[in-house]
User: Which sequence fits this backbone?
């Protein structure tokens, strides 16, 4: 074993260990920067009374389809907006815009997950859907998006019955961090070998509080329960009184006026 | 990849703060419940440090134990994954820590960079 660095590898070169090297302490979290951006995003969502949802899944589980089906049902009831994360193409954002809801596409290129910094910039291009929902469709991947907080209020993991009922135990990092599990493509259940109870049991073992919705984005079966849950989540947020809203506006106006005065553009 | 880039970013920051020019070894602490794959981080670290102050640096990983307590019987035990069952009753655990990912310390020097 290397006595200098304590590693167990006897083969490795010891260049740099001897002589005038010194040890410095660092103790910095790898996710410190992302977490700082996530905190900013979260504060912004709360200030604007936006329910932000981070949708994660394997590729092809039906996230975009679920979003268009959800938007159709909620369009007249809640303001909504979508951030679409994909490695390539703007196709999914186009699919969302066809529903009449604003969408911003983030192309991550080789990156296999969204991060809080990218989401923060995407938000600059959006009018916040106050009192409503911002859906963030993450890149199709159940591995590293687990580590990257985007500032969302709820993390929603989508899986489809064609993927196998042991997904939660295969991707425990993701499922333990999700608040909601959607089992999609319920219309295909008769054609596949998928044990719904086993899947839900695995998910709840990782997170006993997991909300579960079984639905088909294609046929609409089970969509109503999901949509009602979304509305209930927003009603808490929308309940801020007009008085409070006026007060925030007044504060903001006062702040802007004082800045204008400082800049000498306005007489006091 | 992006976590390895984050490690490099931390090294570059520290080089300015703690005034060194070369990194020879990096110790990271990765909890057993952290959402990161050790071998992948090793590989990515080697790739992203090419041509930087940390080119060729060793990456050492420490894996502190994670503790959890059974949600059914309350017994506490060491978890090495999210799936570790309670040794008493087989119940699921509530984790306490174990998700940390941290650059802990470095072996550094002031020697000039070997090559760019
Ligand atoms: N049978 C069936 N197919 C679905 C359902 N939801 C989505 N799909 C199909 O699954 C494929 C992937 O859907 P998409 O929304 O692009 O998945 P994403 O990659 O998670 O955004 C598409 O061909 C959809 O038409 C569903 O409920 N039932
Ligand atoms: Mg999609
Ligand atoms: Zn060594
Ligand atoms: Zn990734
Ligand atoms: Zn920026
Ligand atoms: Zn127990």
Assistant:
């Amino acid at each position: 074993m290397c006595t200098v660095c304590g590693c167990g590898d006897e083969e490795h070169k010891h260049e740099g260990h001897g002589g005038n090297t010194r040890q410095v302490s660092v103790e910095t979290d790898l996710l410190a920067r992302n977490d700082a951006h996530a905190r900013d995003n979260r504060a912004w969502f709360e200030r604007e009374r936006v329910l932000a949802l981070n949708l994660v899944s394997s590729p092809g589980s039906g996230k975009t389809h679920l979003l268009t089906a959800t938007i159709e049902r909620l369009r007249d009831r809640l303001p909504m907006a979508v951030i679409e994360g994909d490695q390539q193409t703007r196709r999914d954002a186009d699919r969302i815009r066809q529903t009449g809801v604003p969408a911003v596409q983030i192309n991550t290129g080789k990156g296999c997950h969204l991060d809080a910094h990218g989401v923060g910039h995407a938000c600059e291009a959006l009018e916040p859907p106050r009192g409503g929902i911002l859906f963030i469709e993450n890149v199709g991947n159940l591995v590293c998006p687990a580590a990257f907080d985007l500032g969302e209020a709820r993390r929603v993991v989508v899986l489809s019955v064609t993927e196998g009922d042991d997904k939660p135990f295969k991707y425990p990092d993701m499922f333990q961090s999700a608040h909601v599990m959607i089992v999609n493509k319920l219309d295909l259940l008769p054609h596949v070998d998928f044990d719904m109870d086993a899947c839900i049991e695995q998910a709840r073992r990782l997170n006993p509080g997991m909300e579960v919705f079984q639905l088909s984005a294609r046929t609409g079966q089970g969509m109503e329960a999901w949509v009602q849950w979304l509305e209930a989540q927003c009603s808490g947020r929308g309940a801020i009184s007009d008085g409070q809203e006026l007060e925030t506006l007044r504060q903001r106006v006062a702040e802007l006026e004082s800045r204008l005065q400082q800049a000498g553009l306005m007489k006091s | 990849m992006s976590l390895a880039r984050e490690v490099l970013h931390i090294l570059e920051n520290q080089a300015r703060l703690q005034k060194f020019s070369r990194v020879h070894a990096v110790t990271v602490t990765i909890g057993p419940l952290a959402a990161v794959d050790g071998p992948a981080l090793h590989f990515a670290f080697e790739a992203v440090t090419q041509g930087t102050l940390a080119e060729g640096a060793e990456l050492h990983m420490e894996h502190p134990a994670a503790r959890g307590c059974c949600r059914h019987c309350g017994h506490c035990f060491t978890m090495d994954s999210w799936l570790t069952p309670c040794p008493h009753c087989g119940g699921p655990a509530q984790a306490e820590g174990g998700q940390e990912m941290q650059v802990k310390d470095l072996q550094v020097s002031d020697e000039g960079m070997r090559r760019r």
